[in-house]
Amino acid sequence: MFEKLKQLFSGSDDAPENSAMTMELAAAALLIEVSKSDYQQDPAEIAKIKELLIRHFSISLSDIEHFMKNAAAINKDSTSLYPFTRYINDNCNNLEKYELIVALWEVAIEDGQIDKYEDHLIRKISDLIYLPHTEFIRAKLTTTQKAGINQ
């Protein structure tokens, strides 16, 4: 416990979550955060997260359960979005950031509606990764039109 406090006050970035961060974990943590943001983590949203991770990353179907447990643990232990959004800012271009925001919208819309908390969180993430607002809106409109939901 004292070591963690020393790290906190010294500003050290030697925390395990920072050294082991990958694009897959950062994206998964943000996707999980969106699924929890409306206080109802729907099973369809979890299934959608798994589908997105398998489709966009090199995570096999046999490894997805273990990966999701790891991502959920990292998400639970995190006190902010910063480690995830910083990793994305350091490693992604605008097209990859746009694709992440589309994926976040896909998770939010999976239960048939976009809750105000989901909308707020995706907007916040979009701002934190410095995605232009026009791209945020384009991602939302593209996803809602594809799902047949009027916003």
* Count of all domains: 1
The chain-level mean pLDDT equals: 85
**Biggest β-sheet, characterized?**
none
The CATH superfamily is identified as TerB-like
Indicate the radius of gyration in whole angstroms. Answer: 16 Å
Strand elements, count: 0
Distance between the termini: 46 Å
Pfam families: TerB
InterPro entries: DjlA_N (IPR007791), TerB-like (IPR029024)
Protein name: Co-chaperone DjlA N-terminal domain-containing protein
Please render the helix and strand layout as text.
Blueprint: H1 2-10, H2 16-19, H3 23-36, H4 43-56, H5 64-77, H6 82-91, H7 94-109, H8 116-128, H9 133-147
Pfam families: TerB
Domain Co-chaperone DjlA N-terminal: 24-140
Organism: Zhongshania aliphaticivorans
Give short descriptive properties of this protein.
single chain, 151 residues, mainly alpha, TerB-like, 9 helices, 0% strand
Protein described:
This protein has 151 residues and is mainly α. The protein has one domain (21-147): TerB-like, CATH 1.10.3680. α3 (23-36) runs parallel beside α7 (94-109). It has 9 helices and no strands. The longest helix has 16 residues, at 94-109. It is globular, with a radius of gyration of 16 Å. The chain has helices at residues 2-10, 16-19, 23-36, 43-56, 64-77, 82-91, 94-109, 116-128, 133-147. The relative contact order is 0.14.
